[in-house]
Write a structure and sequence with these properties.
Blueprint: H1 10-18, H2 22-43, H3 47-63, H4 74-102, H5 105-108, H6 119-131, H7 135-145, H8 151-158, H9 162-193
Helix pairs in contact: 1-2, 2-3, 2-4, 3-4, 6-9, 7-9, 8-9
Length: about 190
Amino acid sequence: MKNSYSTLDDQDLLLQLKAGKKEAFDEIYNRYAQFLFQYAHKCLPNWDDADDLVQDLFFKLWTKKETVHVLGSLKAYLTLCLKNLIIDKHRHQKIEANYLKFLDPHDLQDNGTENYMNQKDYKTVLHQHITELPPRMQEILVLRKVEDLSISEIAAFLNITKQTVKNQILTAMNRLKSSLNYHSLFSLLIFFFF
């Protein structure tokens, strides 16, 4: 037996959704969830991530129902919203990968003592040393090493000269390298003597 909402077109469903009718939301979910899951699964290699994004989309649809403004097709609107969530997910994964790459001890050490440090400890120490840098230096370092912006992009974004960006990055890297080499030597001494 079909409910009365199943006979409504998308625009009428949206009006009912904006009025807070849970049944309208349920009908939208029933109409488009399967299509959106399939779309997300084609775009993301991890099925759990794809499912999470579709659930996030419907959660946002419900929580922002009063402000949803759809000019054309509801299916096209939901697909576009999902596509934006997928792009954000890819962007976040790239940033996360760059950050993890940046935290790789082989990038900052060449004396071999990193073998005596636990990777997790090393990353914790590196993060601690980064947070001890001056705020502007931290910001520039993160924009360069994590966000993967060019020197020119950072200079334009922060409204400073390219040379200032270069100087800040060089100073930050030298401070980190010095701090981390000291920490590695200290860890090595503790390992051998205690």
